[in-house]
Amino acid sequence: MANAAKDIPDVESASEFSDDGNATDTTEVATEGLSDASIPTEKRDIIFKDITLELKTSSAYPICEKYDLILLLTSGSLLAEFQVSKEILSRSSSEIERMITAKPTSWCIREGKKVQYINICGSKEALMRILYILHFQAGDDLYGLEFDEVIEIAALCELYSWSRSIHPWPRIWWESYERYAMRPGYEDWLYLTQVFGGLYTAENLINDLILDCKPSPKLSLSILRDGEEVSTRRWCLTDRKKVLDGRLAQIEQMLKLLRCVYERFRSPNFGYEKFCDDPICGYIARGSLLNCLEDRGLARFIETVEVKNEKGQKKETETQELRYQLSAKDWEGSVNDLLEVFKNVELDTLGERLPKHDCDMEDILDSILSYEPCLE
Predict the structure, then answer these.
(1) Stated pTM of the model
(2) Which of 51, 61, 94, 304 shows the greatest Cβ crowding within 10 Å of its Cβ?
(3) Does 135 lie in the same domain as 61?
(4) Sign of CA pseudo-dihedral 91, 96, 102, 105
């Protein structure tokens, strides 16, 4: 694959062109909508309709030998041009075809001829790889791309509707990274499924993220996974909603279970006798459970407060309205973090004090200790 850039020669004068693209012996610029203008002899200039854009530096990448279209890429303070086939680019994407046929047409002077150009944005390396694929010049280096490089190609494919035009390469890259998809650092796998969709599924990754992630306290379009900041800016809104709403639903379900267990201890009709013949054992278990939850930062998720109106007065209702001090939205950890807390919930019984005491009080915790998330 030829990928060396060549310097664009300085333009010493502009020429007027007939309809067949040949230059005449005049120094006027024959660009649509622009007349009585000239190109500076010491600068590299691209001619726009009504505007002359001065380029301080520029490199050219000849994708095909007989080019009749230039893609002008701005990257920071540098300009690079890609010399391509207009026919191939027009057929590659409806978006590019629209850009080529849009009016007014922009031209530049190359090798004494008028050549149309269009402006494009994105990664220079990703654009070059896509153009070589479109011009049937793909090289072996495309087999060993890094994951971030594949993402940059996907970004351009989404922007300029090239997703179908570069097949079968997306499948080749997909097979290379599929075994890593569930690992931290590959969360933009969701983005690949969005751009090259129809071939792949990301449900397993979404389910893993529901369990692993937590909101970032710093960035609204980021999550935390294994302590690392993960950007979700490329994800579609549907996938992002699935992950964040799924996480919240799991936490709400777990807190609901925890509250049910605790409320059983608080209820005057609890029926300790079903688990132990000694009522004192029940009181000990209840107190130890609350202490355990307090130590693990969960007490405020199960304890209620009276709801007050705007003036700070209690609502005068027949049944006093109560609200939990903290809700699922206040849990800052992941679902897996809460599961780890669940596994360590414990309570004391008379058996801690009386070696011969035997009861089933600890069975009440079975629903907590054995809890497993249910992901659809």
Answers:
(1) 0.70
(2) 61
(3) no
(4) negative
